Amino acid sequence: MTDIQDICASRTATIREAMALLNRSGVQMLLLLDDDGRLQRTVTDGDLRRLLLAGRELSDTLADLPAIHSVTAPESVSRKTALALMDEKVIDHLPLVNADGQVVDLLHRRDVGKQILLSTPHMGEAELQFVEEAFRTNWIAPLGPNVDAFERELTDVVGIAHGAAVSSGTAAIHLAVRMLGVRPGDRVFCSTLTFAASANPIVYEGGEPVFIDCEPGSWNMSPAALERAFGAARAEGWMPKAVIVVNLYGQSADMDALIEICDRHGVPVIEDAAESLGARYKGKPSGIHGLMGIYSFNGNKIITTSGGGMLVSNDEDLIKRARFLATQARDPAPHYQHSEIGFNYRMSNILAGVGRGQLQVLEERVLARRAVFEAYRDQLSDIPGLEWMPEPDWSYSTRWLTAFTLDPAVSGLTAGEFIKRLAEEMIEARPVWKPMHLQPVFSGARHFTHGNEPVSDRIFETGVCLPSGSNMSPDEMERIISSMKAIFSGR
Ligand SMILES: *Cc1c(COP(=O)(O)O)cnc(C)c1O
């Protein structure tokens, strides 16, 4: 913001004084104010030039400039409205006025800043080298040395024996579901509080998802609800083919408790660690606890290949079979021979190069996201009715997205209203995932709750995710935090 005293003039100022002021100010205009500080018009170089051409002297005053309507906005104007006004009027500066019509500030287009997004890709330094290597050696294929190296390097980082790099996290889940033999009519248990990609692959195979509620302490699959679902299955004489456990927003579910239940019923676990690469459960990396785990490298995730995923397991046969299915299920024959239906799911050698570079900065990215969460927590915890997503003792979360719930009875704002208010300030916040059992596409699906009331419904109704990118600048953090303080203090 400019100190507006430096660009204000009255009608008694001379043309020479006005020109000198313009020359010093660095802004292409002056604000001509009346005695009460109200804006009469803006004055540009061109206005002064036209006065001189019309025969005025440098020592004449601005008294003859006609009053014209100038665009102003109230001082409380939102960034979004201010920017829309500047765009509409094709101006770069917007005088802000108080209730009495006095000019109190001048908003510059550059101060309005950019939209702050929820989670954006954050490249490191090595990605381009790996990609260049792929170009140089003409390995532009869905196979190649970067793919092999990425699989090796990632499985080393998380401490598991084998991994198959594929085109998306969804593809990895699909391969896992397929390999566990899900057929039409089979049921699969799946966390309800998640992104649709956790559950869709069940339906690709004709299976039927049965949704499991979360527990309030971790926002992840409730062992009590899972136990209840197995109880019902037993009583009705069926068993699910698999259980898909999601680690929400970078936080592990209580894997020991969940796996103990699944083991007891002899049902394998697929760990959906799409959001939790780099997280830990009881000190062990997230994604390696079930029979198979999956990671996502979509553009908004902790690290990205723009799009991609990986299926991991300690069972070599499963990963070999995943690679086979992901490359069109080609039989080992000199001609093209197929004995079953395959998929085109392998990751390209170029994108694996991006992944290798990203893997080098994984730990930094996790620390940065945790620092984003800590900044929010340190500065915003006294907002009444706001509760951060808890982090149990056994969890080291990536805080992929900083999430909280808002009690409207205490805060005076619903989550939806709050998200709209932030949008007015060009800050993207989102509701927590809408639970799968509430999705129209899964309206017929069964659902088992943690207690009498579904926990996930309440988290969905009151939950908010804040911008959490590891590449947010301190200025952007400050903008979000001060906007939130203003919203909650009623300004
Ligand atoms: C992103 C995501 C997926 C899907 O990963 P893609 O790589 O986008 O296919 C699956 N599950 C969860 C929980 C996710 O957040």
Plain-language structure description:
By secondary structure, the chain is of the alpha/beta class. The chain has 3 domains: 4-112, CBS-domain (Roll), CATH 3.10.580.10; 126-359, Aspartate Aminotransferase, domain 2 (3-Layer(aba) Sandwich); 362-489, Aspartate Aminotransferase, domain 1 (Alpha-Beta Complex). It is 36% helix and 16% strand. It has helices at 15-25, 45-53, 79-89, 109-112, 127-136, 145-158, 169-179, 200-204, 223-236, 255-265, 316-326, 349-360, 362-380, 408-411, 415-424, 455-462, 474-488, and strands at 8-9, 30-33, 39-43, 73-74, 93-97, 103-108, 162-166, 187-191, 208-212, 242-246, 269-272, 280-281, 284-285, 292-296, 309-313, 386-388, 395-396, 402-406, 430-431, 447-448, 463-466. A hairpin with a 2-residue loop joins strand 12 and strand 13 (284-285). Helix 5 runs antiparallel to helix 12 and helix 6 (145-158) runs parallel beside helix 12 (349-360). The protein starts with 7 loop residues before the first strand and ends with a helix. 45% of the residues are buried. The model has no long low-confidence stretch (mean pLDDT 95).
Radius of gyration: 29 Å
Output the CATH homologous superfamily of the largest domain.
Type I PLP-dependent aspartate aminotransferase-like (Major domain)
Number of helices: 17
Shape verdict: elongated
Count of the domains = 3
> Which structural class is indicated by helix and strand composition?
alpha/beta
> What small-molecule ligands were found?
pyridoxal-5'-phosphate
Unreliable stretches covering 5 or more consecutive residues: none
**The first-level CATH class name of the largest domain:** Alpha Beta
Main sheet strand line-up: 7-15-14-11-10-8-9-20
Q: Could you tell me the mean pLDDT?
A: 95
Give the amount of beta strand, in percent: 15-25%
As for the CATH topology of the largest domain, it is Aspartate Aminotransferase, domain 2
CATH architecture of the largest domain: 3-Layer(aba) Sandwich
Distance between the termini: 20 Å
Number of strands: 21
Q: Roughly what percent helix? A: 25-40%
Major beta sheet summary: 8 strands, mixed
